[in-house]
Amino acid sequence: MILNKNTAKKTAELLLSIKAIKLKPKEPFTWASGWFSPIYCDNRVTLSYVPIRNYIRENLVKIIEEKHGKPDVIAGVATGAIAIGVLVAQELGVPFVYVRPEPKKHGRQNQIEGFLDNGQNVVVVEDLISTGKSSLNAVKALRDAGANIKGMVAIFDYGFKHAVKKFKKANVELTTLGDYENLIEQALETNYVSEKEFETLIEWRVDPSEWNK
Q: pTM higher than 0.85, yes or no?
């Protein structure tokens, strides 16, 4: 779920303004999963814009304090959420760790980098939620290491139904600054996309794995 409607609209406005989110219904992107998509999101771009970076940091901290209190540790999901996770941890004045997709194949073979003690309360920071696979993989690694997961916060969420089910099944409370519905509404209101393109964006979200095949 989103923090609130106003924040979601503002987040959409900011991400669109710096092209962190690109909408190209007529020239679809190809995701790593093989899906064709009229939208591509790269929230790492926000790190290059100080006011936007600050906005994201401040509002992610707001979610954490309101919903989970002050955690013992902030955990970022590699690689996209490492930088913003560090900023959030710094603002809260708590330690930071990050979680790799899988353990390293050399050295100490860590999957979690940084110090994490058994039983510590952890809030996970993500930049983007799509299928939820990598996000929940990080949660599993943290739980296996003895962490108590208080919740997850993220910048943007596509809101896929199967992802929502996965988070519910894993008992992970997810709160985001922005989401797909508010993004495409903002894109239409500001003439970033046409009415026809808006309809295409709605159609894609219904069944993204089969769209445009």
A: yes
